[in-house]
Amino acid sequence: MIQLEDVTKTYRTGKREVRALDGVDLTINNGELVAVIGPSGSGTSTLMNILGCVDVPTSGRYLLDGIDVSSLSGNRLAKIRSTKIGFVFQLFNLVSRASAIRNVELPLVYAGVRDRRHLAQLLEQMGLGERQQYLPHELSSGQRHRVAIARALINNPAILLADEPTGDLDPVASAEILTLLGDLSEAGRTVVIITHKEEVARFAKRVVRLRDGRIVSDQVQRNGSAISA
Predict the structure, then answer these.
(1) What does the mean pLDDT of the chain come to?
(2) pTM of whole model > 0.85?
(3) Is 12 a domain residue?
(4) CB-based contacts of 77-80 (< 8 A; 24+ apart in sequence)
(5) What letter does residue 45 receive in the DSSP assignment?
(6) How many domains does the chain have?
(7) pLDDT in tens, 160-211
């Protein structure tokens, strides 16, 4: 379970103080599919960094499965990132000279995991079975998204954080990626989508809206219509 309690995040630029998050309270249960949406500068990226243990709050608490991660050491946070959290980045961050299967394998290399037998199976599940040896430039945008998702899942994390997971995909490919994320949630994985796009947020079961670092709306959705939670 993800639980934020009165979380703030403040940055300083010279003498100016910028409060990127301002008293955020948020609970996300295991297996939920949640979209966090807001305009540029609303705090969505800062929230993702805190949820992903890339950054820590200035004040308040972040409880992950009951553990307050706000004050953990850098090594402890790195361990949580490598075992509990998978990241899907907006620009993929794929290694251009490495094949699809080698890109997916990278987290295992960094974690020192020797057993690679599930690599091929995961790529098959992502619809990339025949393209395991393709380089990123030989894949379509939708296939590169799938490689990025497979890499995020290779260590079997409980939480998947996806930053604009559809990027500049066409509507058909976007729907395929969002359906895939929905299937992962249905299978019990917690999925949090960070987006600026209303059409992406509509695929989530719950939509959290940020503005000026505050949550202004938190709604569950049924059949495409939002109902206040």
Answers:
(1) 89
(2) yes
(3) no
(4) 77/53, 80/53
(5) H
(6) 1
(7) 999 998 887 888 888 988 999 999 999 999 999 999 999 999 999 999 999 9
CATH value at residue 190: 3.40.50.300
Whole-number Å distance between alpha carbons of 61 and 6 = 7
If 0-12 CB within 10 Å is exposed, 13-18 middle and 19+ buried, where does residue 129 land? exposed
Alpha-carbon span 61 to 211, nearest angstrom: 20
Which segments of the chain have a pLDDT < 70? 223-229
Q: Per the structure block, which two tokens stand in for 44?
A: 């969505």
How far apart, in whole angstroms, are the C-alpha atoms of residue 33 and residue 9?
Answer: 24
| Alpha-carbon torsion, ordered 36, 62, 57, 74, to 10 deg | -110
User: Rounded to 5, what percent of the chain is helix, strand, coil?
Assistant: 35, 30, 35
Is 212 part of a structural domain of the chain? Answer: yes
Residue 23 lies in a domain: no
Distance of CA 26 to the CA centre of its chain: 16
Is 46 exposed, middle or buried (CB count within 10 Å of its CB: 0-12, 13-18, 19+)?
buried
Tell me whether residue 13 is in a domain: no
Bridge partners for 190 per DSSP: 159
Closest CA to 145 of 177, 179, 104: 177
Q: Which domain holds residue 161?
A: 31-54+84-228
Say what the pLDDT of residue 183 is. Answer: 92
Q: Are 58 and 9 in contact (CB under 8 A)?
A: yes
